[in-house]
Amino acid sequence: MAKQHPGPNSKHLRPIGGYKLSDQPLELNAGRPVIEVVVHNTGDRPIQVGSHFHFFEANRYLEFDRPAAFGKRLNIPATTSIRFEPGDRKTVQLIPFGGLQRVYGFNGLVQGWTGDDPTPPDYRPDRAESLHNARTRGFKFSAQDQGDNKKQ
């Protein structure tokens, strides 16, 4: 027996490609570990950082705890961003990248896996090398991580 179409007056009818939205609130990134960092725009122009940008590699004029941001992105909805006006100081939440946790591109400071789990040594980018790259290319670090991480 053929299944019948619900008809044009049915409450179940949705256009092709339509969405069925829940009436319950949605919690983004539920259960993911979250850290907070204070970010200061030391530049003279506004800086905008998108939701899935590797925050460790964000604009060199943003001053924050870069080592803590290694392998992390903003905890905001996809396709959105946070804008830092010149002189702004904001606290942002960061979460680890999901999936394979591979980071390529951006500012070229890290080219590979950024997770915390054990992995073959040839697969993980050298974290100390990434920190060195950021420092030598003039990326700002917050005062509390200037001394401790220069050795890395």
UniProtKB/TrEMBL annotation:
It is an enzyme of class 3 (hydrolase). Keywords: Cytoplasm, Hydrolase. GO terms for biological process: urea catabolic process. Residues 115-152 are annotated as: Disordered. It is found in: Cytoplasm. Its EC number is 3.5.1.5. Pathway: Nitrogen metabolism; urea degradation; CO(2) and NH(3) from urea (urease route): step 1/1. It catalyses: urea + 2 H2O + H(+) = hydrogencarbonate + 2 NH4(+). One of its GO terms (cellular component) is urease complex. InterPro entries: Urease_beta-like, Urease_betasu_sf, Urease_subunit. Residues 123-132 have a biased composition (Basic and acidic residues). GO terms for molecular function: urease activity. Signal peptide: none annotated. The keyword Hydrolase applies. Belongs to the urease beta subunit family. Heterotrimer of UreA (gamma), UreB (beta) and UreC (alpha) subunits. Three heterotrimers associate to form the active enzyme. PANTHER family: UREASE. This is Urease subunit beta. It comes from Micromonospora maris.
